Amino acid sequence: MKHPHHEYDGLVFDLNGTFANTMPTHSVAWSQSMAEYELMLSEERFYALGGGLPASEIIDLLAKEQRQVVGAVAITESKETLFIVLLGTVQPVIPVQAFADFHREHLPMAIAVGSPKWAAEQILQSLGIRDWFRAVVGSECVTNSKLAADAYLRAAELINSAVILLNDTALNIQAAQNAGMVVVDIHTLL
């Protein structure tokens, strides 16, 4: 791959699973909080759903599948509280962090997530890299979830750049490509 700063004027990263290896921590927080409300979420199902859907959509989907009536807000709060408790276990994805570290002096960078912005901010702070990013776009910052690419497009707008997006899931990569973005699957960097 050519150096992106030779061809583009900004980088947008997904965070969960792309920049930070949060998925194991999210899986634990999800399964434990769902169990409190008698919903089942196996690790396999968690990873199958993993693609940046907002918490409320995941809860509604699982409740419908399992014929349960639950309070999405209570489960979301439980999950987020537990995730923050477990935040110290999150590690960066080293090749992606190295890629960003190299380019941060040359290109404006942003993070786009399907979770709330505050959660992304917490992860970036815990990794000691919040100051690398000019913008962080969370689910509350856009009308449609990440699978519609709105968060990526908003992040690009906030850093005023034609960007290259780095992501790790097929659904998110397809959504960004459908929106006309150039995408790098991080697995090509690993």
Q: What is the CATH superfamily of the largest domain?
A: HAD superfamily/HAD-like
* Helical content band: 40-55%
The CATH topology of the largest domain: Rossmann fold
Poorly predicted parts: none
Amino-to-carboxy terminus distance: 13 Å
What's the number of helices?
A: 9
Strand content: 5-15%
Give the SSE string.
HEEHHHHEHEHEHEHE
Structural classification: alpha/beta
Mean pLDDT: 86
How many domains? 2
How many whole angstroms does the radius of gyration measure? 16 Å
Shape: globular
Counted beta strands: 7
Largest sheet: 5 strands, parallel
Strand order of the largest sheet: 5-4-1-6-7
CATH architecture descriptor name of the largest domain:
3-Layer(aba) Sandwich
CATH class of the largest domain: Alpha Beta
